[in-house]
């Protein structure tokens, strides 16, 4: 999917690659799809052919295979280090072994972990998780922030103790405005694990529809393949993309910037 944003005085292109809900699928599935080695090969090919590529993950990179059961998340993080992710947000399954375990393997990450609506002050995640990251690449300023799903009925209270879940709509509005207006980002990307359930109070649909400054939402949690545009509060299109599950697919959005 390609779309155009008016920002730069000269034409620039950006390729966004996104994964979600890969669930510790280090090896290919029974159908031969997915696996870290194949994913790395695709990522390397795209990077070799494009100057400006950003790679993100939208949460739930943990849980689902023997690798997580035995190594508690280290294999996933080290593999994502090798793939050189630019930003990753947290899904509910990242918390399955508790905050101390999560902090232990996130401390080995060479990529930013972003989740703007999880207030982690005073917990083991303080200093490891931040609201957003700004990447400067090939003359573009790219703002990326994360959103996490409500822990209710998804994360055990004792595995989320001390973290405050903030209203994702209000958080997204404030952070996106800061990135676009104060930080002067050319593009604002939300990497979200809210999902796209139609009956949910907060979802990636509602975030997009009520936003003003978000250009792209890389979505997770729902295990669907999605590639749609939604009008925001100003009637401008927000692209929403989700890439299935288990790493069998990689989402890609090609963005062109010109004035």
UniProtKB/TrEMBL annotation:
GO molecular function: hydrolase activity, acting on ester bonds; metal ion binding; nucleotide binding
A UniProt-annotated Pfam family: Metallophos
Domain Calcineurin-like phosphoesterase: 16-223
GO biological process: nucleotide catabolic process
Superkingdom, taxonomy of origin: Bacteria
InterPro entries listed in its UniProt record: 5'-Nucleotdase_CS, 5_nucleotidase/apyrase, Calcineurin-like_PHP, Metallo-depent_PP-like
Family: Belongs to the 5'-nucleotidase family.
Protein name: 5'-nucleotidase
High-level lineage: Bacteria, Pseudomonadati, Bacteroidota, Bacteroidia, Bacteroidales
């Amino acid at each position: 999917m390609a779309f155009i944003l008016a920002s730069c005085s000269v034409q620039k292109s950006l390729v966004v690659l996104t994964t979600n809900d890969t669930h510790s699928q280090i090896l290919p599935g029974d159908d031969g799809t997915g696996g870290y080695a194949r994913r790395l090969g695709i990522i390397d090919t795209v990077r070799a052919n494009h100057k400006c590529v950003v790679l993100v993950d939208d949460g739930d990179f943990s849980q689902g295979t023997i690798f997580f059961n035995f190594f508690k998340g280290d294999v996933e993080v080290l593999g994502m280090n090798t793939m050189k992710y630019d930003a990753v947000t947290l899904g509910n399954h990242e918390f399955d072994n508790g905050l101390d375990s999560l902090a232990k393997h996130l401390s080995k990450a060479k990529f930013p972990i972003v989740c703007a609506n999880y207030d982690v002050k005073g917990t083991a995640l303080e200093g490891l998780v931040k609201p957003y990251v700004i990447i400067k690449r090939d003359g573009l300023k790219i703002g990326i922030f994360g959103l996490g799903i409500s822990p209710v009925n998804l994360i055990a209270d004792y595995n989320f103790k001390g973290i405050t879940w903030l209203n994702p709509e209000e958080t997204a509005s404030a952070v996106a405005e800061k990135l676009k207006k104060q930080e002067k980002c050319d593009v604002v990307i939300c990497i979200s694990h809210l999902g796209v359930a139609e009956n949910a109070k907060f979802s990636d649909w509602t975030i997009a529809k009520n936003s003003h400054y978000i250009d792209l939402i890389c979505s997770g949690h729902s295990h669907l393949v999605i590639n749609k545009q939604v009008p925001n509060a100003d009637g401008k299109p927000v692209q929403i993309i989700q890439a299935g599950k288990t790493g069998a697919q990689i989402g890609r959005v090609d963005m062109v910037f010109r004035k």
